[in-house]
């Protein structure tokens, strides 16, 4: 037998291995970039420098959101040497058990890496890398620990920055920061485990404007994470940049004053500068000190308490609570009726209490008096004329046509839709339309009589306090508004472009003066419902509302603007379970107006009565 | 004795050139990888590159000696040389363990690895013994002895333990295969014990290399699909487990082979073909089933290890650390590399790839020179191996030829496994890249292997028969 042909088998083996390896290398080195990325992940470390967040000023240049220096206690496991756990635990005032579990926590939390290409989370804990062991220590705390750290190699302190709210108010507007969660990290490559981000309010809405630009240093590191050299001589490095300061239209003094007035009450105050749409203050009561939610430790202690509070201090009532507006809604009914031509200024209706209940007052012989007396039967009949215009012989079809027209007017006032203010948590309120009632009663099975409560601001209609304040601003402007907003300037640029657009309602400017005159009388003439809002040298125009509350005492509402001739402030006050609108909401509004316009309160007695009133526990 | 210029005429220059090329590239890579800025001098003997220079010097000197010594002594003293290397393998077992293996024999600050030299002894004795066997009249004794020559050092190596060298010793099977060695004498003895069976020869005994290859491939495929299940193409709803898929594939392959065989064969042979295919199918299925059964029965951590080697599992920072880092280094080289001394992952300083100057030296090379360099290096090795096959085949003496094949196959194994573990094609077993990796023992032993071959080849015309 001749075995010479067997050399072919052997040569085949050699050549195929050679070809196989050549193609494999071609794939690994040239075609596929998985391994290149993996190598970068291993050796080229990005060292990120997070800048302090942008600071925020109010309309008068007061710094209302600042940054404060804190310290993190950092840990590098590779440098730890015979750690005396008991002594260390005693130094930082933890239990030994807590120190131990913190090590595991770091490995499973901060020590993981999320690969955005493979969408996999892998352990990336490296003993040579620094991880924060304790976060957010104050100067006093770190001063106790730092001098003794020499005994514990592997631990050192590092400076960090956190929010500080010097005025202790505006929590519902400003929001708070919390660590980015897993979802945030996976969604946005900006965040790493342990980074803070805005969780609510302006901090959240303007997160990208406030967080600034991270500085990134690329360094080539060894397996022990020693920096070997800057990568590509620092060519790709960027410098950390704090974002430009932000200026709000908010008046922090007014905000703080409003919070003081609303203490021990539930409800809201929203004040807007009508000519610009800038929000001057937005009080949500009860509220909390924003400093309670600064830093992980504070959040850990205070957040559960706030979330468990039955009064819901974290709930942004001014934008999220949808209340029936009550009698303030009559103002729009009057405006729409004038625009539609179903009444004119001199139209009078008798105060027919068989239609709907009313209080005792003079006869509303024109629209001014009707507003002044807040006559329920008058607006019942006015709204019926809007809804049932007789455009169809079928009453039901007629109501459908009328309601559709009516809803369009309401939307033009920014009602029933989210206004688009620069804050989180907004709700649209509710303006029922034909579709809405069809769902409840069936097509052509409802008419004005079914939905009549809406004419006096009860029933299905609901507004947020922000929308109520905006309504006051619209009337002050005689028919137009800028979307209410907080931020006036971001660095050198103005507010977001959407806040520079004037929105016109569907009611012409000429129909506003009689309504405004009515509102003047509400406050300034005997027989008006809002006499408590009267001021000596400023003409306040307002409208009260008392919202029937099936669950308890009525809600007290008041919207107003002042001064009458050159409106500087438009305001809505809503006090839950406080009773008649003129009793509580009206004086609060006048105090706010006075504070804003004159910075002084002349009627100290009135102020004292409001401040001391405890209305929050009345059901 | 021959004069020196005669030697110069007859030496195989292409092979020698490959050797010099690889040694030079190896030195350069060791220098770049192990570079210490405090000792920048290439000949600094406190550094690995300085030492490697010294080892190359020693190896060249040993090569000169090989050329000066009368080559007949290798054949004459094959048994003593073999026994001496075995003796060293025994002695080393009593040495203190380094990294968990009794592999190093210390001489002062230097140490050698006897396992590297055992390959030379085994190659010499195997060539000497097998060349005396008449392949037409093999018997149990010749089979047992020639295999024992390989198995005894393997046994000693496994005691160290050194899995890499153990596997390298199976390269001698290729040599036996080339020479026509058959396991039939033993297999027939066993099979013919079955009453009524009387074979004269078995296909398995003679064609053991292709069979082994088939067995290995079948095992790997079985393990790969062992945990999977898939739908058959023609019956979409029927979900089969991996092993069923393997057996169906085997049946299809068997049927195709039968069709091919029956077309070529006569009527009587056709009957045989059916039997052969059926037996092959049965044996293969049994093998696949038992591999599957054994694998499923393994403890989870053993299973993990196997899955890791097969690339079914990822454990980048744990058990798979070395290979993952090595592959990242190789893969990040790109088309033309990061440049000499610019390896960011596999330099000793950065230390991301462990053993980057010895077992994983292909990493820094591939990282620095990219695909262009890798392709060049692979081409040099393949050229060298093919050159050795050519040299082997031109020998008139079977003794020379067997030795040449031994050298070729040892180098082939080292090359295939070493590069393979850098690119994820082979399990991580520590064996050096010949002529390239840092290390005195491997440099010297491979050089001696090669220089003996060059010496024998240069004298090929002196042999009349």
Number of separate helices of chain A? 22
β-sheet strand percentage of chain A: 15-25%
Largest sheet of chain A: 6 strands, mixed
Shape of chain A: elongated
From the alpha-carbon coordinates, what is the Rg of chain A to the nearest angstrom?
A: 33 Å
Assembly annotation = heterodimer
Based on helices, strands and strand pairing, what is the structural class of chain A? alpha+beta
Q: Give the class of chain B from helix and strand content and strand pairing.
A: mainly alpha
Question: Which short descriptors sum up this protein?
Answer:
heterodimer, A: 619 residues, alpha+beta, six-stranded mixed β-sheet, five-stranded antiparallel β-sheet, 22 helices, 20 strands, 36% helix, elongated, B: 465 residues, mainly alpha, two-stranded antiparallel sheet, 19 helices, 4 strands, globular
Summarize the structure.
With 619 residues, chain A is α+β, with helices and mostly antiparallel strands. Chain A contains 22 helices and 20 strands. Chain B has 19 helices and four strands.
Question: How would you describe this protein?
Answer:
The complex is a heterodimer of chains A (619) and B (465). Chain A is of the alpha+beta class and 619 residues long. Chain A is 36% helix and 19% strand. In chain A, strands 2, 3, 6, 7, 12 and 16 form a 6-stranded mixed beta sheet that branches. A 5-stranded antiparallel beta sheet of chain A has the order 14-13-20-19-18, with helices on both faces. In chain A, strand 10 and strand 11 form a beta hairpin. In chain A, helix 3 (85-92) crosses helix 4 (96-108), helix 10 runs antiparallel to helix 21 (585-598) and helix 13 (330-340) crosses helix 15. The model of chain B has no long low-confidence stretch (mean pLDDT 84). Chain B has 465 residues and is an all-alpha fold. The interface between A and B is large, with 41 and 52 residues.
């Amino acid at each position: 037998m001749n075995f010479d042909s067997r050399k072919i088998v052997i040569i085949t083996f050699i050549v195929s291995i050679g070809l196989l390896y050549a193609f494999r290398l071609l794939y690994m080195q040239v075609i596929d970039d998985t391994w290149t990325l993996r190598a970068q992940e291993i050796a080229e470390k990005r060292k990120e420098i997070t800048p302090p967040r942008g600071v925020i000023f109010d309309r008068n240049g007061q710094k209302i959101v600042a940054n404060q220096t804190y310290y993190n206690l950092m840990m590098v496991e590779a440098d730890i040497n015979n750690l005396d756990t008991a002594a260390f635990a005693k130094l930082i005032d933890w239990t030994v058990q807590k120190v131990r579990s913190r090590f595991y926590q770091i490995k499973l939390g901060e020590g993981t890496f999320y690969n955005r290409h493979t969408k996999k989370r892998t352990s990336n804990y490296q003993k040579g890398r620094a991880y924060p062991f304790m976060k957010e220590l104050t100067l006093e705390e770190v001063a106790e620990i730092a001098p003794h750290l020499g005994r514990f190699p592997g631990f050192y302190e590092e400076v960090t920055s956190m929010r500080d709210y010097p005025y202790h108010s505006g929590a519902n507007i400003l929001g708070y920061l919390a660590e980015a969660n897993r979802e945030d990290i996976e969604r946005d490559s900006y965040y790493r485990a342990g980074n803070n981000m805005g969780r609510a309010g302006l901090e959240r809405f303007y997160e990208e404007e406030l967080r600034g630009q991270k500085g990134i240093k690329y360094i080539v590191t060894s397996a022990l994470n020693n920096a070997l050299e800057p990568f590509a001589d620092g060519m790709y490095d960027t410098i950390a940049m704090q974002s430009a300061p932000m200026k709000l239209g908010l008046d922090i003094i007014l905000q703080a004053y409003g919070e003081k007035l609303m203490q021990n009450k539930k409800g809201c105050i929203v004040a807007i500068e009508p000519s610009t749409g800038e929000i001057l203050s937005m009080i949500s009561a009860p509220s909390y000190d924003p400093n309670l939610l600064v830093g992980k430790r504070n959040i850990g202690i205070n957040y559960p308490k706030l979330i468990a509070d039955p009064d819901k201090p974290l709930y942004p009532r001014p934008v999220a609570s949808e209340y029936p507006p009550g009698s303030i809604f009559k103002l729009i009914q009057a405006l729409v009726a004038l625009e539609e031509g179903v009444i004119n200024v001199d139209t009078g209706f008798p105060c027919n209490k068989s239609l709907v209940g009313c209080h005792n007052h003079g006869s509303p012989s024109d629209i001014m008096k009707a507003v002044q007396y807040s006559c329920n039967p008058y607006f019942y009949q006015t709204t019926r004329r809007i809804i049932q215009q007789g455009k169809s012989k079928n009453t039901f079809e007629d109501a459908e046509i009328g309601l559709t027209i009516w809803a369009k007017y309401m939307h033009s006032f920014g009602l029933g839709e989210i206004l688009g203010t620069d804050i989180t948590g907004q709700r649209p309120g509710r303006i029922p339309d034909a579709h809405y009632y069809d769902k409840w009663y069936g097509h052509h099975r409802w008419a004005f009589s079914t939905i009549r409560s809406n004419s006096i601001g009860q029933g299905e209609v609901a507004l947020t306090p922000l929308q109520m304040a905006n309504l006051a601003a619209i009337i002050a402007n005689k028919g137009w508004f800028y979307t209410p907003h907080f931020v006036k300037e971001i660095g050198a640029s103005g507010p977001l472009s959407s806040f520079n657009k004037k929105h016109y309602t569907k009611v012409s400017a000429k129909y506003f003066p009689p309504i405004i005159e009515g509102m003047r009388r509400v406050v300034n003439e005997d027989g008006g419902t809002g006499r408590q809002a009267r001021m000596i040298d400023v003409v306040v125009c307002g409208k009260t509302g008392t919202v029937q509350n099936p669950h308890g005492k009525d809600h007290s509402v008041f919207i107003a603007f002042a001064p009458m001739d050159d409106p500087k402030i438009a305001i809505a006050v809503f006090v839950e379970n406080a009773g008649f609108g003129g009793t509580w909401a009206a004086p609060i509004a006048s105090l706010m107006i006075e504070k804003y316009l004159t910075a002084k309160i002349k009627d100290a007695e009135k102020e004292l009565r409001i401040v001391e009133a405890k209305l929050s526990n009345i059901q | 004795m021959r004069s020196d210029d005669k030697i110069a005429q007859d030496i195989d220059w292409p092979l020698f050139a490959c050797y010099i090329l690889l040694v030079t590239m190896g030195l350069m890579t060791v220098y770049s990888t192990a570079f210490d800025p405090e000792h920048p001098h290439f000949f600094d003997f406190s550094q690995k590159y300085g030492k490697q220079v010294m080892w190359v010097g020693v190896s060249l000197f040993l090569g000169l000696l090989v050329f000066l010594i009368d080559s007949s002594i290798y054949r004459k003293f094959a048994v003593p040389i073999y026994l001496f290397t075995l003796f060293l393998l025994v002695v080393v077992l009593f040495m203190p363990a380094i990294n968990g293996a009794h592999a190093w024999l210390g001489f002062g600050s230097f140490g050698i690895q006897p396992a590297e030299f055992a390959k030379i002894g085994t190659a010499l004795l195997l060539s000497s013994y097998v060349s005396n066997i008449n392949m037409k009249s093999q018997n149990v004794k010749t089979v047992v002895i020639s295999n024992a020559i390989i198995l005894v050092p393997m046994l000693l190596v496994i005691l160290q333990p050194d899995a890499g060298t153990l596997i390298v010793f199976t390269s001698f099977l290729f040599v036996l295969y080339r020479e026509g060695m058959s396991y039939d004498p033993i297999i027939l003895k066993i099979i013919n014990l079955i009453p009524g069976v009387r074979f004269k020869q078995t296909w398995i005994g003679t064609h053991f290399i292709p069979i082994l290859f088939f067995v290995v491939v079948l095992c790997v495929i079985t393990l790969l699909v062992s945990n999977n299940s898939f739908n058959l193409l023609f019956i979409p709803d029927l979900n089969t487990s991996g092993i069923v898929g393997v057996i169906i594939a085997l049946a299809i392959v068997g049927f195709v082979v039968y069709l091919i065989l029956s077309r070529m064969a006569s009527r009587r042979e056709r009957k045989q073909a059916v039997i052969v295919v059926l037996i092959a199918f049965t044996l293969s299925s049994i093998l696949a089933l038992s591999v599957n059964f054994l694998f499923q029965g393994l403890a989870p951590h053993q299973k993990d290890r196997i899955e890791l080697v097969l690339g079914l599992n990822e454990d980048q920072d744990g058990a798979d650390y070395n290979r993952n880092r090595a592959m990242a280094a190789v893969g990040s080289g790109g088309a033309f590399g990061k440049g000499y001394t610019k390896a960011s992952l596999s330099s000793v300083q950065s230390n991301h790839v462990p053993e980057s100057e010895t077992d994983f030296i292909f990493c820094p090379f591939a990282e620095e020179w990219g695909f262009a360099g890798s392709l060049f290096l692979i081409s040099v090795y393949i050229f060298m191996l093919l050159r050795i096959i050519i040299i082997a085949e031109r020998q008139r003496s079977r003794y020379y030829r067997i030795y040449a094949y031994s050298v070729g196959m040892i180098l082939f194994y080292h090359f295939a496994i070493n590069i393979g573990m850098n690119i994820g094609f082979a399990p991580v077993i520590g064996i050096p890249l010949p002529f390239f990796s840092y290390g005195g023992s491997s440099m010297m032993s491979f050089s001696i292997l090669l220089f003996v071959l060059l010496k024998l080849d240069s004298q090929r015309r002196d042999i009349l028969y």
